[in-house]
Structures are given as C-alpha cells and as structure tokens.
TrEMBL record, chain B:
<dbReference type="Pfam" id="PF01300">
    <property type="entry name" value="Sua5_yciO_yrdC"/>
</dbReference>
<dbReference type="InterPro" id="IPR055128">
    <property type="entry name" value="HypF_C_2"/>
</dbReference>
<dbReference type="Pfam" id="PF00708">
    <property type="entry name" value="Acylphosphatase"/>
</dbReference>
<comment type="pathway">
    <text>Protein modification; [NiFe] hydrogenase maturation.</text>
</comment>
<dbReference type="InterPro" id="IPR017945">
    <property type="entry name" value="DHBP_synth_RibB-like_a/b_dom"/>
</dbReference>
<feature type="domain" description="YrdC-like">
    <location>
        <begin position="195"/>
        <end position="388"/>
    </location>
</feature>
<dbReference type="Pfam" id="PF17788">
    <property type="entry name" value="HypF_C"/>
</dbReference>
<keyword id="KW-0863">Zinc-finger</keyword>
<feature type="active site">
    <location>
        <position position="29"/>
    </location>
</feature>
<dbReference type="GO" id="GO:0016874">
    <property type="term" value="F:ligase activity"/>
</dbReference>
<dbReference type="InterPro" id="IPR041440">
    <property type="entry name" value="HypF_C"/>
</dbReference>
<dbReference type="InterPro" id="IPR001792">
    <property type="entry name" value="Acylphosphatase-like_dom"/>
</dbReference>
<protein>
    <recommendedName>
        <fullName>Carbamoyltransferase HypF</fullName>
        <ecNumber>6.2.-.-</ecNumber>
    </recommendedName>
</protein>
<dbReference type="InterPro" id="IPR036046">
    <property type="entry name" value="Acylphosphatase-like_dom_sf"/>
</dbReference>
<dbReference type="InterPro" id="IPR004421">
    <property type="entry name" value="Carbamoyltransferase_HypF"/>
</dbReference>
<comment type="similarity">
    <text>Belongs to the carbamoyltransferase HypF family.</text>
</comment>
<dbReference type="InterPro" id="IPR051060">
    <property type="entry name" value="Carbamoyltrans_HypF-like"/>
</dbReference>
Length: 330, 755
C-alpha cells in the first residue's frame, strides 16, 4: 500500500476490499455513518484499540481478535451486541494480500457472531508510523431488562466461575513471536462470548454479580481489578483452574505463570452462591464453556488480597504485575 | 566516658550522671542503688525520658563513677554516660525515686533466656517459683515480644491481664531484689497458665509424638530428633521439603555429642539471646533432620518451659535419656507462612500437624522467630536475626531524620531510624503470602510504636512488583527507591560506620538493576548517597526467570550453551522434561540474562549433578559448599575485562573434565574467591579506595567468605563483612535507610525521588 500520491485510487481499492469482506447493506450505501433502529431500555457502548504482534497467529489474527474483543466487552455487561464499527491505521508498504486476509477474517468473525460492522474508516500512514496495521473498533449492544452487572454488587461468599482453560491466547502469540515450537501447536482461544453470556444470564438472572474477560494481564490482573472495585478479597483454588497441558508445559519452559497470561475467549463471572450451580451447568452446556469451573470465592478482606490455595496446601498472593513477570528470588 | 567523670569527681562531691542505652526494665536502678550503698553515697536514681538519671554525693563518688559501667546487669547496655557537677546538698541515704515523665527515647530490650538464678528457683522445691513455667526477673525473660509500646511498663505489655499477687507485688517493689520493677513478674498464683502438664508433654515426646508449644516469639514444634520416622512425619505434616530442621538440647555439653563445638561456638550457644547456631554435624541425628548437609543447627533452651520439658524427659530415662535428649525444634507455621502466635489460629492451623498443642494465656504481642548464627570468616555471622537480638539498635555514624526502610521481598526485615540509631526489625520472612504481608505491616506498626517514631520518608527496593514496594507506594510519604545491591553494600557501610567512599563486592542472587536488568554479582563504588557500577559478573542467560532460580539444571544448561556446548544439553539433562526445548530458548537473543553470583553457584551445582531442582532456596549452593574439602585455585581460570569478571575458563574446565564433584567444588570455590580478590584489587588500584564491603547472600558460604576476606587482606585491603546483621536480604533494609537518610540530609525532602 502506498501513502500520499495516488491516494484516491488506493482509498477506493481499500474500501472496496472492506465492503466485500464485511458484506452488509449498511456499508453498501457508502455513507459516512449508518442508521439503525434502537430498542427500548438500556444500551451499552464500548471502544477498543488492537495492536498485536504478530498480526497472524494460530487460531486467529488481528481482525478476528478485534471483533471478538469488542463483542466480548459488550457481552461482559450481560448485553447483546448489535453493531460494530472499525477504523484501520495501515502502515505504508503493508501487503494488500495481508490486509485482505485480515478483512476477510474480520468479516467472517462478525458474521459468525451475528454482529455486523456497519461503519468504518481507513488511514494509510507513512512507513514507521505504525506497525503494519492498527485496528480501532467500537460496538453497541442492548441490555436485557433490569440486568445491571457491576463489581460493587459482589458479596463475601460469592462464587468465582471461569469459562475455560487459561493462557491459550498469550502462549500462542508468544510462541509465534519467539519462534518457539512445541509438540502440540498452541492455538489462541479468541472467540465471541455473547452466546455463552446469554445462556448464563438466562440461568443466573440477578444472581450474576459481574463478568470480566481476563485479557491483558490474565486472570491475575482481572481478579485484582475486581477485588479493588468490589472491596473484597478472593480465594482461588489452584487445582480447580483449568490449564491445557501444552500451555502448562510452554509456561513452565518460559517461566510464566498462566495466571498472568492473556486470554481472548474466556470469561470470569462472580455469582451468588445460590445460582452458582445453575450458571456453571449452563456454561458447561455451551461449546465455549465446556471446561468451565468454579475456581474460588469472594471473602471479606480489608487488604483485598487475591490469594491462591496451592495444590500442596500452601497459599500465596496472586499479584497484579506492573509489566512483564520479573524474577524475585534473590 | 569515665575519664572526665573522674576529673570532675575529684573536685566535686555531688555529681549528676545521665545514662543512656538499654537501662530501663533491666534491673539498672537496683544495681545503682547497690553500688551507691557500697560506696556510702547519698542521692537518688530515677528513670527519665533519656534513660536513667543518677545523683550521688559522698567521698567515694569517683569510685562510684568508675565502677558504674563495670558490673551492669546482664541485659543492660550503656551507650554513654554524661557527668555534670552539682552543688552539694549534704543529703544522706540513697533512694530510688519516681520516674520522671517526658517524651520517651529509651528502648525496650530483646527477650532473654532464663537466667541462672531463675533456673535455680525453677528447680528449687522451696521456691515459690518451683516448676513455674513463666519464672523471670529483670535479668531474663520476655521483653520485646510482650511489649506494645513505650514506656515499658506492665500496663503496656501482655502481662497487663495478670494482676500481681501480694508476694509478687512485694518482690516488684523491693529495690534490693532481682525482681524490682520486673514488669513480667508472676507466679503460679497470679500468672499465666499452661494448658497441659509438662509430664504429659514429655510423655508425648517420648512416644514419638509431635508437640506444639507456645514459645517466646511464637509456636514451636518439637519432636524426638533421633527417630527418622518421627522426623519424616513432621516433614510430611508440615509440608516441608528438604529444608533442614534445628535441634534443641538441654546444654552445650549435651550438644557436643551432636556437633563439633569449640569455645566460640559454646559462647554463642550460651548467649542470653539463645540463637540457633550452625555447627559441623557429627551426624548423630536422624538423617531427615538435615539431609545432605554438613552442618546442623543447634540451640539451647530459651524459656523455663524448655528447661522443664528436658527435665521431665530426663526423669523418664530410657535410651534417648542416657545420651541426653535432643529435640527437633522448628517454628510452627504452615509452609511459607509466618510463625503462629495467636492461640485460636494455632489450634486450628496446627490441628493436622501436632499431636499435642500446648498453649498458655499470655499473649505474644509481636512474633519473633529463632535467630540463626554461624561462624564464618572467624566471626559469628547472622543468617537470620530475630528473637534475642531485636530491637537492639545499630549505632550510625550520624544522626538522620526518621526513615522507614521496607526491605525487599525475601527474608524481609524493615528498619526504622531514630536519631543516630537504626532499629532493624526481626526477620519477617518471604512476602509471598497474605499472612506474611500482614505480619510485615504489623511489624512496622509495632516497631514505630515501641520507638515512638513517625517516619518522614520510606526507602524501598527499585523492583516494581514487590509487596514492600507496593506498601511504600500507599503511604503518602516521600519515597526513596534504593537499588538492591547498593542497599546491600550500604548496609555494611552503615553498620561499620565506614567514612568516605568504599568498594562494594556484592555476590547475590537477584536484584532489580538500575537499568531494569537482573543484577546479582556486582562491584560497586559507593560514595555517600550514590553509587557507580564499576563492574559485574559476565552475564549468563537465565532461561525461564525465577524457574531458573528454582531449577539449577537450567543455569547449568545456560552455562553449557555459553561455552559453546548447547548441543549437549538434551543428553546431559535427559531427566528434565524441558531439556529438549531449552536450547530453543537459549538460542534466542532476547532471552533475559543475569549477572547473578547465586545463579553461578546453581549452574555449577547443576553441572556437577549436586542439585537439579531445588526443594528450598539455597539448597544447591549449600550442597555444593558441603562438598568442599580444600578450596583450590585454577590458574588463569578467569578474566577481568573492563570491569567484567568472567569465569568462563574455569567453567569450561569444570564442564570439560570428568572431575570428581569434591574436587570440582573445591576448584570452583577457590577460583571464584581468587578471581573476586583479583577483581577488587584491580578496582582498588584504579580508584585508590582501600576499603571493600562484602555483602549478598553468597557470603553465607563460609569457604567463599573466608577465602575472599583472607585474599583481600593479603592484598592490603580492609575487607568488611556485617557483624550485627545478616549478609543476605535480611540486612538490606538498613542499607536502604542509610542511603535514604543521607540523600534526604543532602537534598531535603522536596526532591521526591532519587534518579
Ligand atoms: Fe539480595
Ligand atoms: Mg476494551
Ligand atoms: Zn531471671
Ligand atoms: Zn504472683
């Protein structure tokens, strides 16, 4: 792709590519905006930026990731996602074929989720001013009547449910980035979770306190964030947390704690103990929640510690790291 | 101190003396009373805000002043005595006056082992303290662990719940006795009670049971150390890997059967602090006590209860009785968590560990683990400093604003400064658990409260993700980050009062470098509040971060890779599931490196097959050290290029030959030491600095420490090891406080942080 001169032809080429990939009536109209009907009740809106290296990884790419991430941000409110927007910052010299691959994958992810991308924008910037492609997305959705998920609703005794195994996405990215090969290929878990969420809402109703997707910083960062916002501590059971053997082995090699590794298709739900069984059963019945597990509980704690009971009886603090995992053993 | 006093005394017949130090609650006033009476002096003695004030009048005041520091009570420490002349008052008689109020700047003394006089009463059927497990006096007993705050008074200790009976009250008020103002005084009539009879305890121990008792600083677990099945059961129940246990015996004579004890070791064992002393083992205990180690930790009874238990065991006789009983004595805590002190918590947490839990109703206000000391490089060195030594201050070369320094992450201690004194807390432990972090915060509260100090700044490690750093961030006080190895070196500088610049040789495990890197084998130039990194060990890859610290085979693989033998990794470490994949990581240019000395020990231990995966911190290095018979130097085994010390020739030599592990361990220790001496001597020539401070956990290694100290001294350098603090991270907080204090003194508080 080029920047500057010949920009008009290029812009047309690119918009054509996206129209084809995203294929819906809104984009076909060619307006700078799209109109849609609004439902009665409450809507949610979110926005997110995607910068990932490498752009293509086992189990996905930056395009599908952008759709899943935004859909999930809406879904974590318990809402049904309706529409997405997408904006692309493309580095001059980026291969057209790669852009097409990303656009196709994005369109495919949006169709699979049933959430069309109804408006968008592209900019090509000078070489060196971006790293291949950056994607910004926004999304809107609608909340079921009376549902209000929020961290301050959590109470001591609430259960913590996790929808599946940890670390798949982060380890897939890292292996690809560092050119590491393992006996079993590790595939990102990137997926849209709103279907799973709808089943959980149906099963748990007002017993659902809050949901989060443990993306960057992994379960550790997300649980600490929840602890801060809810003013509670959490006790997790290491044995109960699913980690795929291949992911565990890769983490062991790299010296990573799977709890600190990013996920893109998992959610954590804090639910009242009386609906925990029903919600967990609903999760297990959904294809994206087959490995769901009850991993711990909320406790009153003025320090808001997230603690992990380890398999051999000890307990440790699950830390909220400020960056990468640094050594500590002196 | 006494010289000006004598001159003054020659001209005046009435003098006022102000005595500073640990002089309250230790029987100092009765001592002064006795002395004044002996010299037929009039006047008085009183406690005041600074310590003790004495006025004496009479013909023999000079003799009094000279004698005063000579025969002080066992727990008293005199820092200084100021003498001023007074107008004679022609008073007669000497009295102990009421305390004078004011802001308290005196101090609480450490807990002390039962004194000989109390011990005699304990076993004297005619004494009212006969077999009383809480007998104590001003010369012994609990202090620090029962004190809530200053002033040290029964009402501010855990004894406030126990009103004195008439007999105790009489002793407490008798200025001629050992129990005059003994704040912890009590007897069977009025004091705390044990939950079980001592005979029951002895019977359980004799049957091979595991018994928890409430000791001075926290609960302890005891069991027969001669029976391997019993020790193994303790290990299994406590979830304790291979980490060695200490052993308690009734006397130094009894201990001589288990370990080699020379005169300095005996003196250490018998100190009132009663530390655990690491001694060369005769291997007369069950193998599970200290598996694979050449040394054993030995301690003597601390509290009356310990004496009573040994007494009851001896009375039972039997096989173990003939040789003298030896008991495993270890802190009672779930693995990785702090010592238990609370009765309810202990009953719950120890239910699955101990067969019998012996408790009592005197609270432990603040926990204190047993201290651990070893003889290294000709002197006693702390491995862990806690009960018996804390809160004795370290005298600084200058006064500074009150600083709180919070240490690092492992073996944490905190330091609070007050004027020219630095109070280093008891060993807190590793800040990995919620319980440890709570204890850490409790320690800070307790220490500032017993010192009556409000810190104006917090010094902390540069590592962004330590619980201590996070604590520092949440206080709303100015923060002073201090680089880990700078703090290591500064702690020795502060303790020894080194004036002017010094070289710092820090041989350590890991610390967050000023550049974010994994530092650990550092040669620093320390000057005032700043430092310069003159050099470091040649970097070695550290595949898998802390994993590499737990798995020495990984560092050994990094070593092989470094000397161009990466192809041998898979076959050399075939037993390790990750060995096939590790070369992939080592080949990568962005795999983190470390200049750590500790990891170098791990690498060699892994290479020699001494330890592949550690079950406790320091296991590999300790086992490698245990192999050394004669340290030897490999000629041209190292290079120093632009400050970087590389041991690659030595490591290649060790990896290439099929050396016997004993020979290899000797060669590694000897050559590393010689290389360090060469490195330091080079730096000394280049900088003109003749003092080198030695710090970092590797200096717990006696061979290494001794060789380096000897080598440095032979090269004309003044080589200093810490005497009053551990050389590992347990001493770090003092260095942080010292650096922060200097910085604030120089730059003021407004500058915020140090760049
Ligand atoms: Fe250190
Ligand atoms: Mg987002
Ligand atoms: Zn005594
Ligand atoms: Zn009494």
């Amino acid at each position: 792709l080029s920047h500057g001169a010949g920009g008009r032809a290029m812009a047309q080429l690119i918009s054509g590519l996206f129209h084809e990939a995203f294929g819906n009536g809104w984009l076909a109209r060619g307006n700078d905006q799209s109109a849609f009907d609004v439902a009665a009740g409450r809507m949610v809106m979110t926005t997110d930026g995607y910068v990932v290296s490498p752009l293509f990884f086992p189990g996905g790419d930056i395009g599908s990731l952008a759709v899943h991430g935004t859909v999930n941000d809406i879904a974590m409110a318990g809402a049904r996602p309706l529409y997405l927007s997408a904006s692309f910052i493309i580095e001059e010299g980026f291969r057209f074929a790669d852009l097409k691959r990303i656009a196709d994958s994005m369109g495919e992810a949006a169709r699979a989720a049933g959430v069309p991308i109804i408006t968008g924008d592209t900019k090509v910037v000078e070489r060196g001013k971006a790293d291949g492609v950056f994607i910004s997305t926004a999304g809107v959705g609608v909340l079921p009547d009376g549902l209000d998920l929020s961290a301050d609703k959590a109470r001591p005794g609430d259960r913590v449910l996790l929808s599946g195994s940890l670390g798949d996405h982060g380890v897939a990215i890292m292996s690809k980035r560092q050119n590491l090969t393992f006996d079993t290929e590790i595939v990102s878990d990137s997926a849209s979770l709103h279907g799973l969420v709808a089943d959980m809402v149906a099963a748990g109703g007002h017993g659902l306190r809050l949901m989060r997707d443990p993306t960057r910083g992994g379960l550790a960062a997300t649980m600490n964030e929840i602890a801060q916002q809810s003013n509670l501590g959490f006790r997790l059971q290491e044995d109960a947390i699913p980690v795929k053997p291949a992911v565990a082995a890769a983490c062991e090699l790299l010296g990573l704690d799977p709890l600190n590794v990013a996920n893109e298709g998992k959610l954590i739900a804090v639910v009242s103990p009386d609906v925990a069984g029903a919600v967990l059963a609903a999760m297990k019945a959904h294809p994206l929640g087959r490995d769901a597990a009850d991993i711990g509980e909320a406790v009153a704690d003025d320090h808001r510690f997230v603690q992990m009971a380890t398999s051999f009886g000890g307990g440790r603090i699950v830390d909220w790291l400020s960056g990468e995992q640094l050594p500590r053993i002196c | 101190m006494s010289a000006p006093g004598q001159t003054l005394a020659a001209k005046h017949t009435r003098l006022r003396l102000r005595v500073r130090g640990a002089v309250q609650g230790v029987g100092f006033r009765p001592y002064v009373h006795g002395l004044a009476t002996r010299y037929r002096l009039g006047g008085f003695v009183a406690n005041d805000a600074d310590g003790v004030v004495i006025e004496v009048e009479g013909e023999e005041v000079a003799e009094f002043v000279e004698a005063l520091p000579q025969q002080t009570p066992p727990l008293a420490r005199i820092d200084d005595i100021a003498v001023e002349p007074m107008v004679a008052d022609s008073c007669t008689g000497f009295r102990i006056a009421e305390s004078v109020g004011g802001r308290v700047t005196t101090r609480i003394v450490p807990d002390a082992a039962t004194c000989a006089a109390c011990l005699a009463e304990l076993f004297d059927p005619t004494s009212r303290f006969h077999l009383y497990p809480f007998v104590n006096c001003t010369h012994c007993g609990p202090r620090f662990t029962i004190a809530e705050r200053l002033p040290y008074d029964r009402a501010t200790t855990a004894m406030k719940r126990f009103p004195m009976c008439e007999a105790c009250r009489a002793d407490y008020e008798d200025p001629s006795g050992r129990r005059f103002h003994a704040e912890a005084i009590s007897c069977a009539r009025c004091g705390p009670r044990l939950s079980h009879g001592v005979d029951e305890v002895a019977a359980a121990l004799a049957e091979g049971k595991i018994v928890a008792i409430k000791g001075l600083g926290g609960y302890q677990l005891l069991c027969d150390c001669s029976r391997d099945d019993v020790v193994q059961r303790l290990r299994a129940r406590k979830q304790r890997d291979g980490k060695p246990f200490a052993v308690m015996l009734a006397s130094a004579d009894a201990a001589a059967d288990l370990a080699e004890i020379d005169a300095p070791a005996r003196a250490l064992l018998e100190q009132v602090a009663r530390p655990i002393v690491l001694l060369r083992s005769r291997h007369h205990v069950a193998p599970s006590v200290a598996p694979g180690l050449a040394k054993i930790g030995v301690m003597l009874p601390v509290a009356p209860l310990h004496h009573l238990i040994f007494h009851a065991l001896a009375a039972r006789g039997g096989a173990a009785g003939e040789r003298g009983w030896a008991l495993v004595c270890t802190s009672a805590n779930p693995s990785g968590e702090p010592l238990l002190t609370d009765n309810d918590e202990a009953l719950a947490a120890l239910a699955d560990i101990a067969d019998l839990i012996v408790t009592h109703d005197r609270d432990i206000v603040i926990r204190a683990d047993d201290s651990v000391v070893a003889m290294v490089a000709g002197g006693p060195r702390f491995i862990r400093r806690a009960r018996g030594y804390v809160p004795e201050p370290i005298r600084l070369a200058r006064s500074m604003p009150p600083i709180l320094a919070v240490g690092a992450h492992l073996k944490a201690t905190v330091t609070v400064t007050r004027g020219d004194e630095a109070f280093v807390s008891q060993h807190i432990g590793d800040l990995d658990t919620a319980q440890a972090v709570r204890f850490f915060e409790e320690t800070i509260r307790h220490l500032t409260s017993i010192l009556d100090v409000e810190p104006v700044a917090i010094a902390h490690d540069m590592h962004p993700d330590m619980a201590s750093t996070r604590f520092a961030q949440g206080r709303g006080l100015p923060m002073v980050p201090v680089q880990h190895h700078h703090a290591h070196a500064a702690s020795v500088i502060a303790e020894h009062g080194v004036a002017g610049p010094a070289l710092g040789l820090v041989l350590d495990g890991y610390g967050y470098g000023s550049d974010g890197g994994a530092w650990g084998g550092e040669l620093l130039l320390c000057d005032g509040a700043g430092f310069r990194r003159l050099g470091h060990l040649a970097p070695l890859k550290m595949p898998g971060g802390d994993r590499a610290a737990r798995e020495p085979w990984r560092m050994a693989a990094a070593l092989l890779h470094d000397i161009g033998r990466g192809g041998d990794i898979a076959s050399c470490f075939a037993g390790q599931p990750q060995a096939r994949h590790l070369p992939m990581l080592l080949d990568r240019a962005d795999t983190p490196v470390t200049t750590s000395a500790g990891r170098l020990f791990d690498a060699v231990a892994g290479l020699l097959g001494v330890s592949m995966v550690q079950s406790y911190e320091g296991e590999a290095a300790m086992k490698l050290e245990a192999l050394v018979r004669e340290p030897a130097v490999l000629a041209r085994g190292w290079t120093v290029i632009e400050g970087v010390l590389s041991l690659r020739p030595l490591l290649a030599h060790l990896a290439a030959r099929d050396l016997d592990a004993v020979e290899a361990a000797g060669l590694f220790h000897g050559t590393l030491a010689a290389a360090c001496v060469d490195w330091v001597a080079d730096a000394s020539r280049a900088t003109g600095i003749g003092t080198v401070v030695l710090s970092g956990g590797c200096f717990l290694n006696a061979h290494l420490a001794e060789q380096i100290v000897r080598g440095c001294r032979a090269a004309g350098l003044d080589a200093l090891l810490p005497r009053q603090l551990p050389v590992n991270d347990g001493g770090l907080s003092l260095g942080q406080a010292w650096v922060a204090g200097l910085q604030i003194t120089q730059q003021g508080l407004t500058s915020g942080g140090f760049v």
